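Appendix C reproduces, verbatim, an entry submitted by the partner laboratory led by Prof. M.T., so that reviewers can inspect both the input and the predicted structure.
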Amino acid sequence: MALFSVWALTLWPAAHPETEGRPVAFRALLQERPSADPLKLDRVLERAPKVDFFDTKLSENPVWFQLSLHRNESEKNETIEFPSRHLTSLACWDRLDMRSVGQATRDQFQGGLSASRRGFAYPLPEDRADVELTCRAHFIGPARLTVERWKNADLAIAARSYERNSGLLDGGLMVLSVFVLITALINRNSTYLLFSVWLTINLRMAALSAGWDTQWLDMIIPAEWIQRVRLITVASIYVVTVTLYKSLFRDHLQQIDRSWLMRFTQWSCPPVLVCSLFMGFPTFLPLLWVCATVTCATLVFYLVRILLATRSTVAAWYSASIAVMLASSLYEVLAAALGYKSLIGSVNSVTAALSSSLLASLAIAAQMRDEHTSRLQAQAKLQQTYEAIPIGLFTLDSEGAFLSANPTLIAALGPAVLAPGSNRWDQYFGADSWLRLHHMLHAQVNAEIEVQNARDRRSDSVSKFLVKATLAGEHIEGSLEDITERSRATAHLQFLAHHDALTKALNRTAIQDVLEEAVWNTRPGASLALAYLDLDRFKLINHLYGHAAGDEVLRQVVSRVNHLLSSEMSIGRVGGDEFLVTMPQTRIAHATLLCQGIINSISSRPYKVGDRSFHVRGSIGLIEVRPGTESKDAISTADRACRDAKASHGNHLVVFEKNSPLFQEHEAEMRLVEQLSATGEAPEGLFLEMQPIMSLDAPSKSLNFEVLLRMRDSKGQLTPTSRLIAAAEFSGRMGVIDRWVLSQTLSWIEANQSRLKQTLFICMNLSGASLNDERFVQEVFQMLQRHAAIVNCLCLEITESVALHDLENTRRFVDRVRSLGAKVALDDFGAGYTSFSYLRDLPADLLKIDGNFIVNMNQHPANVAIVEAIVSLARNLGMKTIAEWAEDPATVQTLADIGVDYVQGFIVSKSRDPDDMLHGDSSADFIRDEGLKTLVASLEEQGRQQPEPGLAGSQGRKLNLGG
């Protein structure tokens, strides 16, 4: 058929041979003014030169032209044609009498003018040898006016050929476009769909180039629509070409640099399309020419890069199709812009549409071939995968019989799995699994279950399989994966995720989950007990005998505890040697007996590790958990009870019942922790009290005191200071509290310094937690610098245990504080320490002797000797001493005899409101005990009324607070 067609096109004559019309020279001019007299314009035209064509250069003003024809006897039956697709209306007058010979628009005709191919035609009158016409024409777009002279018969043949060609082009491209559209819908291919749109718009561009775009599917487009339709057609071919290009070569474009060029091309599409809806030809076409030139260059640049990088046949055909369209469009743009039209008629959108559509068909054919080849390759790979995949694949009928199986499934179940009589599902996995699989598939189409199969009936080893199946018509398609080892590994990982790897007890997270569930299930009236077990001095075993021995002891401890617990109870390891035991539905009395049994079981028998034996003891804090309690609060309370048990020195079990004072105390402390944690500022209700410190050298000569922290709750009740400090340290807010106390103290001193003439020092205690906070320490230094005028009467107390914890850091702090003018005192001196050598590295001003040495010291001569030694040591080091907790005159007398410098305690005065301190001249003014008053009087009568020596060493100067 192809050869026959080539033979016919090459050798046979054409059914409609085309001839060319003869050009007619004419005079033309562009009307400049809106209105003009035809007679005047006719006279002007007589002076214009004759031309073969006239370009409007995008002007939409009327064009007036004049032509003269002379015919001899042989030139009869002729017609003048005005062939311009941009011509919208034409009116002509006979120059002899300026009588109208006809008017025509694209949809209306009067007189002798009629439609002819791309433009209009006027048949020459037969009764006249000379014809002279003056005409007015209107154009839109880049128009060129020409006049042709035709024989009537030749023009009729050309018109039939024109109509036939337009019908062939319309029909061919529409059929191709519909074919591509159907292909896109069947294959759900967006690129094909886009190409179908491109072909349709390409057809409109061909119609525009050929001049039959005034019709669509043999329907006449209204004349007032033609200009806008043409503009939208031109803009649409621009936009769709760029979009199709991006869709075809998306993957390749991502691998090419200079992506900003493509982004510019894409972002130019919306403005071009919008402008086509509002602009006219004179303004829109120059914009389009610029964009089209840049876009064509960009697309060609990328096209060359892509073709060099790929050898795809489809890409080559697509590229050729788009290249033809781009070249044709670029030529028409340049021809319209520059007026070069020598190839118009042979190179235009008609030839481009035919060529690009043919190349597009070849591209689609190549892509179909590639898809067919890919499908065959995929089927071959699928068959290979089916045979080589390590997962069993099968097909079952509706009765559960195997119809097909891949080699993996045959290897798993045996070669007889497809043999008649041994190919039923329930023969391998049991009837229950088949019923379950069948029910799930009919309920939800897809199913996933785990099944078991006995590997060897003589052993207990069982294989586990994961079955995934789906309904495929009347059959069941599925896969069978051996998950035996994975199930074992999963079970082991799940165990490790919830259990301690060493002791096999629950880990912290798991025991906390168990506790939360137990609390949730505990209803009002029911009981839940929680025990916190801590092994005493267990770290010593690790230190002396190694961690291996310690690990074995922990395993044996958990084993002994588990033997005493019921199935509802659980034990979990929450620390190195700490455990939690949950006891749901267990009353506190029963839990107490059980915990006592646990303690006895742990400590009654030694632990044998190799050839060694160890004795281990434990302490337990037992609490009764109320419904609704947070697990973290319950664990914290049990931990507190356990710490109390460890500190009790002998009683290894402490029980917090729901309504016990100890439980209520801890709950109050936890509420205070929450209050402190909720904000970064000091809590409401804080206030200060002050307790006098009396000089034993000159009781009536100085007014010294210590600042004490107090707090009232929201109900106005006093909160124990020990609870406040414990909560602040637990919540990490001790620095905030100390900062508030120091700030309030300095402000109070500054406000009342004129009334503190007798004051040598004012003590204030700093927490160890605050001293370990570098930010707090820097803020202390800043506050002391801001109050340099009164800082010399401030004495900061540091607990002896805190000072020894980090001696170097403490020394730096002490040196800096003293350099700023404040004093430093060591608080609770002598508590639990036997070496005083560190005093030489801490240049403190005061030593506050631990009150445990002072209380009832007259009944313990050893305490008297210790205090006397401390006083002697302090005097030799240039320090003053303060004795705390003095509660009777006899103790004060002993302290005076030993040589203690200052005394503090209830016998002198309880803590007072700061304003009360301003009403006394000395600390002795606050004494209410008559015995102590007598003693103070006797001390002064014995000649100890010399001026107060102060705290500055041998200089003995008194502080001057008055500036």
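The longest strand covers residues 462-472. Additional entries are available on request from the coordinating office.
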